[in-house]
């Protein structure tokens, strides 16, 4: 198998933790309804490929996300997986369901903009934070780690460019409420490296250290990996990515998917940055899932490596 | 139209010259034979979008590259274009044809590896350099600028990783022969940022300054833009790219195309780096060409912007 030559660069972390979002964020955005048994097999394969954090599912009401309506069944099928398996919860009821099934990590999802808070949660930014406050408190009481997703950190389809101060302010409130980590989402993929660097620097100035931050880039304009490199150069060591680029469609005019985990691992392997991930096994897992979805992976690395292997 | 927020970053050039390779390198790798009139219209549109260097065609024997067999006709159709219009020439006969049609810039194409020199030119690395020596000398005598393309600078499909010393050595010989600029090609797309940085640093140590260098990345593994950012951080200010990602196929399992010019301009616009290019007009030109080719552009920026516009 073709692999990159390993040549480290100065000023980069020795190790990066990949927060794999394919089974949740990826499959949530696929049209196909994937059976729980297939999802469970996929999560097993991702863990066997060396991923240590795999976001498994969401305890949102099935009416809103029918793709993940099988959360209970799935949790039982993956209780032997040797990885951190965070799940998304929208409210106390979702948290109770997740805790009852043994979830040890949860994530809540806030918005940096009023327009998206309204569209996604039918609430104001403040209203959403108030909704999450008791959820986070109860999770912390139960000894469960909490991640705060923050959408629209760079731009918003209704509001345009998002002021950095606005993203910093909501990040601060999520941390103050008890979140252990903030995942900074470029939900519409408009970020560029200077913007990434400036946001991270401003978060640092506001007292939020890089080790409380993760980056979550979308490849809508092809910028996800360059932005990720910028975040690593800044000092961030947790990166969200989606195996096989799940959630982006290779045939849609606009591929709005997450950064593909394989494209990320290719770069990190080349830089000699440890992830624990075996890119061959990861690619095989993504090819396997792409077959179930009946379409090729949008990840360039998956396409290149699977062409050579088959 | 959605545009990135402009946030500069330190340590980057104020201006980048894009060496547009779509009409030559891009169309050469498309299956479709595009009529000269369409190519000419495309080049006019690219110049109107603000591109100042547009590689127009190749004076290689039509037997080898039937896609560009109309070089003479095309040159006459674009003699009013207000841009630098380099053309590829393989030998003295090609040079004579190009000069007779008024070419003011040419490019020769060498290989950093023996395997690719053999496959592409049916010569050894030395044999190819010897073939180009009189071409470069004659071009310089005619006051014509010469670019040296160097393929397989990072990895080679037959030989694997290419030693940096080998790439540096052939670069040195191309410059010594009279080339004004070397375009460092990652022909199979395997480079990663540490490798890019190390090659550039080693070239500098060998006395080759960044202003004699251009970078030419392929997106086979999704690394092209991150590698380009690394080259800009190092000090390179000339970047090769292909409008609409021409030459890469969105349906092939492996998209081996060049970096898409639009994805590059999106990043440079976001960083406030001047290129003179209007991304809207450039995208419109690529969408227009994609219609002639009967398939969507593989550029993520083109797909995202054209979805919003139409």
Automatic annotation (TrEMBL), chains A, B:
Transmembrane segments: none
One of the Pfam families matching this protein, by short name: HMGL-like
Gene Ontology BP annotations: ketone body biosynthetic process; L-leucine catabolic process
Organism superkingdom: Bacteria
Coiled-coil region list: none
InterPro entries found in the cross-reference section: Aldolase_TIM, HMGL, PYR_CT
GO molecular function: hydroxymethylglutaryl-CoA lyase activity; metal ion binding
Keywords from the UniProt entry: Lyase, Metal-binding
Domain Pyruvate carboxyltransferase intervals: 16-283
Family of this protein: Belongs to the HMG-CoA lyase family.
Listed NCBIfam families: PRK05692.1 (NF004283)
PANTHER family: HYDROXYMETHYLGLUTARYL-COA LYASE
The protein, known as: Hydroxymethylglutaryl-CoA lyase
Organism of this sequence: Streptomyces malaysiensis
